[in-house]
Amino acid sequence: MKQDLRDRVADEIANGRVWRAKEILRGSFSGDFDPDRCEAYGQVLLQMNDLKEAGGYLFVSGARKPEYQAAIAIFMEKFVTLKAKNRLLSLPGRIHRVNIDDWPTHLVDDLVQLGWLNELRKYQNDLIIDSPNRIWVRRLAEMGCATLFIIIIVLAVVGLFTALRTLYSF
User: How far is 18 from 34, CA to CA, in rounded Å?
Assistant: First the structure.
């Protein structure tokens, strides 16, 4: 996380505007996964007493400070009930788009301990939906469907006019 972002967040918190610090951090998630940003966002959510959401961000950050354990436990209550594919998607902070080998060490250790790492790894390739190749394929399919729809409409209109012209020519 960049220092200017840290400073802006710290200033907002110091001025009693935790909600604004949350907005600033939330808006910074448009880039790649950043464990430090996830931890900072989790800390802000803790201050706002949003324990479930904070727990998710603190869990994926890999940070395992004692003050985070209650929030992480609340997040885990829901997390453990999900199927593997949904578990991967429920992880916050764009982490599902990052190769599991690049995840924070403590997070990987926790997932190994829970017996879920290989299960999540199995689904990850299918869920990295914003890879450039998949975007191209999806857009090409969308354009193909739209083109096919337009052709069908044009042919239907031409067919209707041809049928009407044939009916009224007798």
Answer: 21
Name the residue among 49, 48, 62 with its Cα closest to residue 91.
Answer: 62
Cβ of 78: how many Cβ atoms within 10 Å? 13
In b/e form, how buried is each residue of 136-164, taking b as 16+ CB within 10 angstroms? Answer: eeeeeeeeeeeeeeeeeeeeeeeeeeeee
Specify the pTM.
0.69
Would you place residue 18 in the very low, low, confident or very high pLDDT band (cuts 50, 70, 90)? Answer: very high
Can you list the positions of beta strands (E) in the chain? none
The answer to whether residues 38 and 115 belong to one domain is: yes
On the CB side of 119, CA atoms within 13 Å amount to 15
Six-digit token pair at 63? 């940070």
* pLDDT for residue 45: 95
- When pLDDT is cut at 50, 70 and 90, the band that residue 127 belongs to is low
Domain count, the chain: 2
Q: For the purposes of burial, counting CB atoms within 10 Å of the CB of 2, is it exposed (0-12), middle (13-18) or buried (19 or more)?
A: exposed
* Host domain of residue 144: 131-170
